[in-house]
Amino acid sequence: MPAALEARGLSKAFHGFTAVDGVDLVIEEGETHAIIGPNGAGKTTLFNLLSGFLTPTAGQVFLFGEDITRIAPHKIVRRGLSRSFQISSVFDTLSVQDNLLVALQSRTPHHWRFWENLKVLLKFQPQAREILEVVHELALAHRPASSLSHGEKRNLEIGISLTQAPRVLLLDEPTSGMGTDDVQRMVALGKKVAEGRTLVLVEHNMGVVAQLADRITVLQRGRILAQGTYDEVRKNPHVIEAYLGEEVG
Length: 249
What we know:
Blueprint: E1 5-14, E2 17-27, E3 32-36, H1 43-50, E4 58-63, E5 66-67, H2 73-78, E6 81-83, H3 96-105, H4 119-122, H5 125-134, H6 150-162, E7 168-172, H7 180-193, E8 198-202, H8 206-212, E9 215-220, E10 223-228, H9 230-234, H10 237-242
Parallel strand pairs: 3-8, 3-9, 6-7, 7-8
Antiparallel strand pairs: 1-2, 1-4, 4-5, 9-10
Helix pairs in contact: 3-5, 3-6, 6-7
């Protein structure tokens, strides 16, 4: 069986600076895989390469054995890979539920028919409410997205990603800027959305990584420094050195 997501010799250079340098990465179906590393290690660039938002200078990306290296991001989504971003991106003037209805409609031939009756959107309401239950926002369904807290908005973004029925879900810094309570809610949500799918996350909070990740890849200066379980990685002397001499965790 092919891996859920695989990178082979993946590199990306920007005007002579190599942000990702020859990365080989295999993420098996059903695992939760964390990508960590010091600031500037190339984590987000790698995410953008895996999801089609950047074209590599060299190398290939495979999704369940299919080469998706030069496929547009929206077509990659159709093939089963969805992602979130570091910066919140929702329709603030729409309600929480309407954000999901618009996203659900995007998977159908109606996505470009802006003149159609509202009833077209309402037929997606049962699916939207199911997703809102998953991301713990059913009670907020009719609130404008602009009124959400940072943590609630991150949950909504994950809900929007789930509307595309992804087999592989990429989360970029899902707990960034969160307080302790919101972080723990995100951990619980991460475990829930990982059920039945492959989850890949870039995450700076090693407590979150310890609770969620089956395996970890550590990047430094665009290259893989170490891979393994949380316990293996946190004891690796090269990883300790990369984190300024401090043990990870």
